[in-house]
Amino acid sequence: MRRLFVAGGAGFIGSNFIRQVLAGRSGVEVVNFDALTYAGNPDNLREIAGDGRYAFVHGNVADAAAVAEAMRGCDAVVNFAAESHVDRSIHDASDFIETNVRGAYNVLAAARDLGIGRVLHISTDEVYGPADREHPRREGDAFAPRSPYAASKAAGDMMCHAFAETHGLAVIVARPANNVGPYQYPEKAVPLFVTNALDGQPLPVYGEGLQERDRLYVDDCVRALLLLLERGEPGEAYNIQADNHRPNIDVARAILDLLDKPYALIQFVDDREGHDPCYWMDSSKVRALGWQPDLGFEAAIERTVRWYRDNRWWWEKIKSGEFRAYYERQYGRRLATARPYAG
Ligand code: NAD
Ligand code: DAU
Fold first, then answer.
1. Extended strands (E) in 17-134
2. 181-234 pLDDT, tens per residue?
3. What H or E segment, with its residue span, contains residue 313?
4. Residue-range definition of the domain harbouring residue 259
5. Within this chain, do residues 33 and 80 fall inside the same structural domain, yes or no?
6. Got the DSSP string for 1-15?
7. Is there a domain that residue 285 lies in?
8. 214 CB under 6 A from ligand 2?
9. Nearest ligand, CA of residue 179?
10. Which of 121, 206, 269, 276 to probe ligand 2 with, by most ligand atoms within 8 A of CB?
11. Is there a single domain that holds both residue 67 and residue 154?
12. Which residue from 72, 81, 88, 202 could staple onto 8, CB 3.0 to 4.6 Å apart?
């Protein structure tokens, strides 16, 4: 791998991935192709913007010609580009279809046409639908997505399989669980809870806070992705899970404990429509390649909280922009009718 095309590298996982590639693979150049939607942020890669091995191309994966043009000369591809927030897909899923389905297709088609030797597509555990510890999903299991976001990701994931079978494209699919860590847009639960707590604002916990998510530290996820890019079997999918599952209410309490803030900041608000109770995958396939997570739940949350506490410059800018209108639409009525914490 000499020149890597990364789509969606200005977002949360993509920017952490690019940082790790440039730090750990001295001979590799990176082309970051990103539309800079509300979730894409040049600040996420501020410290490497002047690196001679890094190039940024402002472009949309829904634009087939632009994708092919930027990919020319690359020998490997990673696709992170997506509309990634479940709540936004409940309001309007049209961008999700454009990016997560049409965009995924364009990236695969360009890679096929240019004879790219290795493609890694980032899917999600949500394609399987709800599952629990007793019934972990394996890579060959049927998909049962329940949110418009998950359905769009399932379509992109299946398109990868179709390209491997039909066109012989060397595409590998990664299905990570819920990531936490630096540079995650503060619409997602963990950065929202941490930054609200730092500002003394309520933490809006959906329903009773009993839904569970894995909390996979982003550096651990990125190590798994690099391993799959370099050593994954073409045509195969791989689950990535740290087994750090906790109910959301425990996550909210852990954050407040770390920041020495009162549990009274927790507000139980109307639940997400179609809220999946839990995802659980068997990740033995990626572990058999030598991967395991370094951080358990407590360390992952502690490191994450510390980063947001120490990097107000990054999130204060975001929360004063487009975010305000989104917050009002998503939480205005919910918070007005919230139930207080009484633990
Ligand atoms: P994110 O929302 O933080 O970043 C998405 C990036 O894609 C942004 O930089 C955005 O500008 C870019 N983008 C969006 N639409 C685009 C388009 N049409 N053309 C080009 N670029 C576009 O997302 P993330 O949390 O970093 O997730 C990255 C990938 O991993 C996504 O595919 C997501 O579905 C998947 N995933 C995320 C998680 C998680 O916990 N964050 C877990 C599993 C899978
Ligand atoms: O599981 C992988 C998925 O993880 C990725 O595919 C998605 O791109 C990513 O956004 C994430 O999806 P979730 O829906 O799990 O993440 P979110 O942070 O939105 O929500 C995490 C949990 O917290 C979920 O059970 C809903 C709950 N929640 C969320 C928000 C935003 C709340 O209780 N309150 C909130 O305000």
1. 29-34, 54-58, 76-79, 119-122
2. 999 999 999 999 999 999 999 999 999 999 999 999 999 999 999 999 999 999
3. helix 312-319
4. 189-212+244-274+297-340
5. yes
6. --EEEEETTTSHHHH
7. no
8. no
9. 1
10. 206
11. yes
12. 81
Q: Does pTM surpass 0.90? A: yes
Residue indicated by tokens 């839990």: 278
Both 141 and 199 in a single domain? no
Question: Of all protein residues, whose CA lies closest to atom 10 belonging to ligand 1?
Answer: 40
Tell me the CATH number at 223: 3.40.50.720
Helix then strand then coil, % of the chain, to nearest 5: 45, 15, 40
Same domain, residue pair 130 and 199: no
How many Å lie between the centroid of ligand 2 and the Cα of residue 118?
A: 30
- The closest ligand to the CA of 203 turns out to be 2
Read off the DSSP letter of residue 151: H
In a shared domain, residues 68 and 156: yes
Which positions are catalytic?
125-126, 149
Instruction: Please work out whether the CB of residue 125 comes within 6 Å of at least one atom of ligand 2.
Output: yes
